[in-house]
Task: inverse folding
């Protein structure tokens, strides 16, 4: 992640405060988090205050980190997934990968987030790894998949 | 078992891997017919069809479009709501995977009808592939002058942007969605003013669910009379049902709203275990019990968005009530005091259930919170979020009693 790349991405939304969420999603797709270094640039380019930006980012639970996250796991906990043992999936992943739900691991590489809802209810329990659906039928295979993404 | 009607909305296979072919063969019949009509004639046809919104509120579509047309404002917007934040709902994803041009076509028809110049398709956070598909289709439509300036040489300008937003349950509520499109927190606004008067950027806005828009294209293509032949009065047209939970073949089923819950369960291969109940229209909807299995899934019976989550007799109603309460506690926006405080108290009641002497005071207090929210919260989300738990208490008192006296083996809790 270079400042130049960040500047390039953010400058395409210059003067358009209404595109804050578009920009946030763009940063999430690229870095799987909102880089801390982006915040000041967002203020300058979009013409928003730090408070305005933080209030929006925190409302949507965007992770803000110094470095990109290598593996962003989303575990859906909504009703259909709850009935298919989503809680057990979450516990298994957190235990196996020494992570806490909704917290970036100390090495900054992994985030296992609880989300409502991924709209993959017919394939519950739904788990997305870096934006892609992965079947959670074999939990050990799921852990291996995450470890591979972290390698 | 009743035969499953032939699908109309979901007749196509997914189009992503044959997108160009799909685009080139898409007939745009509905648009051609619409362009030969006046805006008032289009609205009359939509009103005659009896189409009601498929997102949950079931507002008559023709009336909504008419309200926007009647506004004196020069700027109007069209918004397609594909947020699908309601747990158990994924029908819009299926429609956008199988026939995205029907949605775009309906948006162009809406723009022509009310003279809107800009439209937005708002997508659920996880619909990345659909976003790419839509962007490709929109680019081709611009090349072919089906979008953009002087559209189809009919002297009106209209273009569509796709926005994929972050995942929050609230974002699906119309006014909250406008705020998300404006780059703000997805907090609902008080009504009035209604979106038809002051919607996106406080301009008159048509906001329709993806499935509703898909029906618009069908009505204009096949006629309102055809549409009224499907389903009962006030619930006309084809309807997508998302059935999940303790069911053998979860997925989307297309039928009409004269289908019963029993039909739906049979079409989905049957329940896993013995049917105990179903949340119809999701956790903010209504509870169907074994006695309701033959009730048609109409708008009047609470089937607004077509979500059906089935649970069997191995499930504890307390676990379900706690889950639903936790969900709304986590997802409520917190902007109004009644919502904030009542959701906190509702969660506390459910968390401390085992300390209650009996079910009656719990029911009474939870009911009071629900009534308070109905009367004083800023929007309807928290009140609808506190309707399911009392319904579960009333339907399954033994489950709650077990938690209060002796513990529950299903949940692994002990007093």
Result:
């Amino acid at each position: 992640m270079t400042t130049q790349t960040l500047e390039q991405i953010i400058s395409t939304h210059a003067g358009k405060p209404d595109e804050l969420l578009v920009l946030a999603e763009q940063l999430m797709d690229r870095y799987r988090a909102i880089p801390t270094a982006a915040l000041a640039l967002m203020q300058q380019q979009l013409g928003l205050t730090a408070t305005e930006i933080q209030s929006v980012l925190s409302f949507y639970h965007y992770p803000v980190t110094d470095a990109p996250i290598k593996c962003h796991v989303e575990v859906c906990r909504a009703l259909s997934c709850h009935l298919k043992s989503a809680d057990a999936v979450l516990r298994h992943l957190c235990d196996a990968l020494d992570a806490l739900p909704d917290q970036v691991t100390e090495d900054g590489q992994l985030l296992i987030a609880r989300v409502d809802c991924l709209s993959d209810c017919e394939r519950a329990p739904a788990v997305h790894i870096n934006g892609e659906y992965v079947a959670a039928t074999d939990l050990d295979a799921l852990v291996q998949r995450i470890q591979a993404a972290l390698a | 078992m009743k035969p499953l009607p032939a699908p109309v909305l979901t007749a196509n296979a997914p189009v992503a891997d044959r997108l160009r072919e799909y685009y080139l063969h898409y007939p745009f019949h509905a648009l051609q017919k619409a362009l030969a009509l006046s805006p008032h004639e289009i609205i009359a046809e939509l009103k005659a069809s009896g189409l009601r919104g498929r997102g949950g509120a079931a507002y008559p579509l023709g009336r909504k479009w008419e309200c926007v047309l009647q506004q004196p404002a020069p700027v109007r917007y069209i918004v397609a709501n594909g947020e699908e934040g309601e747990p158990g709902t994924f029908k819009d994803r299926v429609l956008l995977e199988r026939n995205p041009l029907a949605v775009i076509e309906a948006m162009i028809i809406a723009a022509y009808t009310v003279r809107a110049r800009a439209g937005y398709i708002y997508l659920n956070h996880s619909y990345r592939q659909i976003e790419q598909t839509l962007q490709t289709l929109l680019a081709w439509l611009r090349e072919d002058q089906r979008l953009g300036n002087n559209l189809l040489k009919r002297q009106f300008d209209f273009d569509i942007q796709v926005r994929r937003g972050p995942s929050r349950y609230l974002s699906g509520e119309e006014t909250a969605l406008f705020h998300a499109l404006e780059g703000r927190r997805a907090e609902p606004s008080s009504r009035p003013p209604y979106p038809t008067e002051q919607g996106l950027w406080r301009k008159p806005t048509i906001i329709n669910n993806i499935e509703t828009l898909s029906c618009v294209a069908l009505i204009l293509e096949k006629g309102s009379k055809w549409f009224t032949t499907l389903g009962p009065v006030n619930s006309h047209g084809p309807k997508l049902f998302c059935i999940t939970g303790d069911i053998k073949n979860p997925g989307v089923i297309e039928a009409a709203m004269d289908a019963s819950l029993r039909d739906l369960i049979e079409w989905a291969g049957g329940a896993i275990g013995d049917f105990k109940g179903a949340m119809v229209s999701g956790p903010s909807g209504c509870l169907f019990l074994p006695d309701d299995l033959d009730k048609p899934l109409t708008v009047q019976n609470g089937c607004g968005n077509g979500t059906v989550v089935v649970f069997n007799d191995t499930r504890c109603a307390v676990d379900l009530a706690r889950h639903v309460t936790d969900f709304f506690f986590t997802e409520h926006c917190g902007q109004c005091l009644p919502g904030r405080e009542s959701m906190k108290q509702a969660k506390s009641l459910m968390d401390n259930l085992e300390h209650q002497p009996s079910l009656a005071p719990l029911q009474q207090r939870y009911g009071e919170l629900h009534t308070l929210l109905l009367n004083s919260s800023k929007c309807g989300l928290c009140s609808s979020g506190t309707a399911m738990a009392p319904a579960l208490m009333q339907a399954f008192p033994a489950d709650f009693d077990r938690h209060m006296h002796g513990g529950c083996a299903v949940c692994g809790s002990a007093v």
The interface with chain B takes residues 17-22, 24-25, 29, 55-56, 59-62, 74, 78-80, 82-83, 115-122, 124, 128, 131 of chain A (CB under 8 Å). Residues 3-65 of chain A form one domain.
